[in-house]
Amino acid sequence: MGHVTLVTGGTRGIGRAISIALKEHGGYDVIASYAGNDEAAAKFKEETGIETIKFDIANFDACAAACKQIAETHGSIEILVNNAGITRDGPLHKMTPDQWNVVISTNLTGAFNMCRNVIEDMRAKGFGRIINISSLNGQKGQFGQCNYAAAKAGEFGLTRSLALENASKGITVNAVAPGYVATEMVLAVPEEIMKKAILPQIPVGRVAEPEEIARCVVFLASDHAGFFNGSTLSPNGGMYMA
Ligand code: CAA
Questions:
Q1: Ligand 1 centroid vs 144 CA: distance in angstroms?
Q2: Model-level pTM?
Q3: Given a cut of 80, is residue 76 above it in pLDDT?
């Protein structure tokens, strides 16, 4: 069946495209996690034949239980794509502690929870790939996203440090920092803001298709990417050049 692969938030948006691209590429036994939308997950499973698993990445014990369940049924996770994420946009002068905490605990602590629960088996096996889906806005900052940008910037620190700690164990840890992609998350941005403040800043003049991000993940998961470690691929249409 190929490498046991978990894509968090893998039933919708960019995660959906990643799950499908890895399955279609071959060589991956893909499982897609989701947090709450049973209807979308059931539809995804029916359309793609990809197995789903429901748990909250913000809950460490739930992550541990899910990883254990996958290890018992498929084998331990060899490829982890930390994709799940949420937004609670608003300027800091209006942001509530809840808006801050839920974004940090899902987007950043969620990545820690998953990495922590897969890393020991990867180290024992001498192989692993971890791919963290961060964001352009974690690189450059964004109006209305102090919480999200802080979490996404934190993912770069996690990626690079974890890459250093495990480079000698056959494990690579890399990040992808997508720009604006045609997903529900981006569609939630008010049209006026999108037209006036965001689209004019994208040099290629359009948002990305989810498949354009998924192809980066297929590459980073592959043997061809063995020398990429602690790096960031930035599919953002030229919006930010680091
Ligand atoms: N740049 C500059 N000015 C902006 C702005 C921007 N991006 N967005 C809003 N403003 C301005 C408004 O025009 C308005 O100006 P005036 O007061 O002169 O009229 C003012 O800021 C509004 O400020 P408020 O404090 O009233 O803001 P608000 O409470 O209405 O909140 C917002 C606005 C919800 C933050 C809204 O601007 C927004 O949704 N912005 C987009 C945030 C964004 O890009 N999110 C990305 C989601 S996709 C994603 O996250 C995926 C990924 O990784 C890329």
A1: 5
A2: 0.96
A3: yes
